[in-house]
User: Fold these one by one.
Assistant:
Number 1:
Amino acid sequence: MRILVTGGLGFIGSHLIRRLLREPQVAVENVDVLTYAGNLANVQDLESDPRYTWHRVSVTDAEALDKILSAHAFDAVMHLAAESHVDRSIASGLPFVETNVLGTQTLLEVSRRHGVRRVVHVSTDEVYGTLGAEGLFVEDSPIQPNSPYSASKAGSDLLALAAYQTYGQDVVVTRCSNNYGPYQFPEKLIPLWITNGLEQKPWPIYGDGLNVRDWIYVEDHVEGLWLALNRGRAGHVYNFGSRNERTNRQVAEDLLKILQLPPETVVQVPDRLGHDRRYAIDPSKAEQELGFQAQVGWDEGLERTVNWYQEHRDWWEAVKSGAYLDYYRRQYQHLEAHRK
Ligand code: NAD
Ligand code: TDX
């Protein structure tokens, strides 16, 4: 089984590739253009596996994608490449529209031309917008995104579903809640706070800190993606989550306890513009149809995550200092020379 994964040098994509390669019959080609969020160190352990290949190609580059898909027949495309950080999208939405909307449409068209059997489009619960105190997002909740990031993901998600309706292209869309775990870029809440804690720096909390997110351990999400690939119904949407709602203040309390830090570590800062109040996922459809079941509880997941950042100081120090970008320059100079 040959699978093209996009965004495999990022947080979730690197976990997905590691999961896919546990299947002896699977070969993975990773299309990742290596933005600031991509990191070769995330897949360093896989580089010697002959079933793994990386292409430094953008999902917006139809010609380059055509070449990759002409070289082999692919059973599936699993599409994760995206601009993924809400705060960056508030600063400028254009890269989000380019990668998330144009990139997804490009990938759908190229996959269709080459007869790829199935496309799994990895979307997010943020496309549903925000909830009040009650209720859960289900697959047919209205699509009401509020940030440039989530609006661009909603656009890509609807393009994927339109490809199914219009052409009968075999597409499955997944919408997951907030992920956490090893290799997450430390601009996102949990790794930012853990690494700041390990550096004796404060933890910025936006507004009143009572916004709610529904946290899932990243390995549970990628298991869900594998199930969606194998058992999902074409044209269907599957929500993934682990019924684990926490306010940001509760996340802070739990992390302060593990890291043995005082409450003054948390410092209130001005709120994010258009900050969604509450996300909460109902994963029943994925549980019933795919056999999905989140395995890692919050206490265990948080403990594992903190341990990983404690044990991989070199990884996050290089990311925070920007030195991780040098790794590519050192290892892949020959590619750059070839390109010129
Ligand atoms: P990430 O930012 O860690 O990684 C994104 C990867 O995509 C990077 O390796 C980057 O180099 C690559 N990329 C960006 N633009 C590209 C382009 N034009 N062409 C090729 N590669 C490109 O993101 P993540 O947190 O791992 O999220 C992966 C996917 O999962 C995204 O589609 C995101 O919307 C979705 N998602 C994330 C979460 C979460 O909590 N992180 C939750 C639900 C869904
Ligand atoms: O410094 C911070 N302080 C703070 O209070 C940061 C970075 C965040 N926050 C708050 C904002 C949110 O309420 O923490 C919560 C989580 O923030 P992020 O980690 O930025 O995640 P979020 O905006 O919820 O989006 C994430 O989940 C859904 C991912 O970044 C998306 O890619 C995914 O689609």
Number 2:
Amino acid sequence: MRIAVVGSGYVGLVTGVCLADFGHDIVCVDKDAAKIEALSQGIIPIFEPGLSDLVSTNVAAGRLTFTTDLPTAVGQAEVVFIAVGTPSRRGDGHADLRYVYDVAREVAGALNGFTVVATKSTVPVGTGDEVDHILRAASPEADFTVVSNPEFLREGAAIDDFKRPDRIVIGIEDERAREVMTEVYRPLYLNQAPLQFTNRRTAELIKYSANAFLAMKITFINEVADLCEVAGANVQEVARGIGLDNRIGSKFLHAGPGYGGSCFPKDTQALVKIGQDFGSPMRLVETTVSINEQRKRAMSRKVIAACGGDVRGKTVGILGLTFKPNTDDMREAPSIDIIRGLQDRGARIVAYDPQGMKAAEKLVDGVKFAPNAYSAAEGADVVVLVTEWNEFRSLDLSRLKALMQTPVFVDLRNVYRPQEVRKHGFHYFSVGRPEAGGMGSVSEAAE
Ligand code: NAD
């Protein structure tokens, strides 16, 4: 099949590359000429494990090309995916749909023959109707149908998620789209990934509901962690105890500094707005948003408390900046609030992240970036493990301690066993676990 993917960011690029790998003929479109130029030269603008190899293979096989020429790409396509950003609208938290609608206007004039226009971007209920309206108004004669096909991939595991999804949700209003979309995903269908066909509005809401539910689950365990700290319980044992219940499941029950990233914060906020717009408030989600916002800042207070209540003039070594490991994405990362909170109280920040420092430079001022974890700890009064990159899971604790001014370790991801770190002479603080040592945990290896 000939498919155009408009927007070659995380989702568009992964979608295009994976569909090419399925054997389709893909052209990835972006308005960012520098990005397209780089991609055409085999330079991948994002860090995503396995992506670079997959791009090279499919470009070499002639199934994948990159262009800024949207009309030609769309004119030749049977399916056009819209995969542009839908960030939070400044000021009110609504999803900003201008990029989606811009693309719809551009696509309208280029449609040629029956075309399925599938929105992969995460968009509020009713956006498909508006895209349909834009296309129809601009090209009354065109033969097309608008589909909602939300994407559930996770950064850091995007290729695997795309190729082995739990489900593929497809919202259609025209039966002809069922056949076309089944053909797009045929290789996955053969692998028995369930294709859930539904109507367009339902598909749009499935995406927001999924993200909001996961964000609530994280926020729930974070609140339980706070309770554990004052009640003398261990959140990892609680998470294990509830997660083994199949009705609950063990995923997304790792207490930490609050959720961040390019999706959960904006999607929870957007769902709150959608509920308000329809007069059907999403109160659980509203509360989740507010708890999570407070939590990110609260983590800086936790570090300050670990330092005896004052960080003025002290050096804080930050290990990990991205919102999660295996990505270079810094959008809404808790590290930003933590760093600002500490700087406001007079701390000096030295930070290291395996992939996120380039993006972080633009988001935080006055931070010194170190070339590795041990450099970040040099002369520090405290190290704070913010993102659980693999390389932070087995630090040489003796070496780390020897480098530091004061051996204080704040582990916001519960990566280490308290006894193990304390054995090396650290004052160790983690999230939702007994500070005085306690029993430790048999389930400490984070997911
Ligand atoms: P992104 O910012 O990485 O990429 C968007 C791309 O679209 C950019 O390269 C931009 O230049 C391009 N673009 C914008 N307007 C354009 C236009 N008129 N013509 C051509 N290209 C244009 O965004 P992303 O992270 O890939 O997210 C895209 C959508 O997918 C969002 O709605 C997001 O919520 C959703 N989503 C993201 C993820 C994720 O993990 N990042 C997961 C699931 C869903």
